Amino acid sequence: MEKWARRYGRSQVQFLMVCVESAGVALQFGRMFDLQGVVNSFIPSRGYMPVGFGQLGCSGFVISDPHGYFVSRKTRAYLQHGENAWSHVEELLHRNFGILPLPPQRAPKRKKAEEKKEVTENEDILSPNWVLPSVGVTSMDNEHEECEEALALLLRHPDVEALTKVMELLTEHFQHEESLMKASGFGSPGEKFSPYANHVKDHERILDIGFAELAKHQQPNSSIPEMTCSEASA
């Protein structure tokens, strides 16, 4: 979202991220993703949770005009539509407001040391030098590291064996993560507008994508897990 916000510029579009957990989590995200173009905010208490509707995580964007009237209550979800989710938002901005990304500006030539410093400071999760941040729970940090290593191996060797390993690790990790979230009351489990429920939905979408891809390349006599992580932990 940060790169997106910089492409459009604050004079055209305000990209707003609202953390529904705490100020600490909002600050962590701000540092993690170097949020400068995005307006990074948080709700002070549960009494400020959205009423009626809202979108969380990768489920889409809420778009309003400058007067607060909603153009879209839910854009396409990335985990369902991939890159078309971003195109959908850009299409809505263009169709409703005539807004397009700003033309790229040619920056003045700089010394190589300055360019190297900027690359280091602006590295994102796709960079090979990006360091996975801690979530403050040792077991989760260890599992995240295992999943990251398995995904890195899959990128280097995109075969059935590597994908099977990824899906096994993700399924086990998602089950464990959801059980910890539920036990600690994280994300208001059971409430209508629940970060926990949305997180579970994202887990299920990821597993659906992975198992569907695995099914395309499995041998006829091979079996693959059919259940999602929420079904397994029920």
Give a verbal description of the structure.
This protein is mainly alpha-helical and 234 residues long. It is built from 9 helices and 4 strands; from the N terminus they run αβαβββααααααα. The strands form 2 sheets. It has a two-stranded parallel ribbon. α6 runs antiparallel to α7 (160-184) and α7 (160-184) runs antiparallel to α8 (195-217).
For this entry, give a set of tags.
234 residues, mainly alpha, two-stranded parallel sheet, two-stranded antiparallel sheet, globular, disordered C terminus
Main sheet strand line-up: 1-2
> Helix tally?
9
Order of helices and strands: HEHEEEHHHHHHH
Gross morphology is globular
Strand content is 5-15%
Topology diagram in text:
Blueprint: H1 2-8, E1 16-19, H2 23-32, E2 39-42, E3 63-64, E4 70-72, H3 78-81, H4 84-97, H5 112-121, H6 138-156, H7 160-184, H8 195-217, H9 229-233
Parallel strand pairs: 1-2
Antiparallel strand pairs: 3-4
Helix pairs in contact: 6-7, 7-8
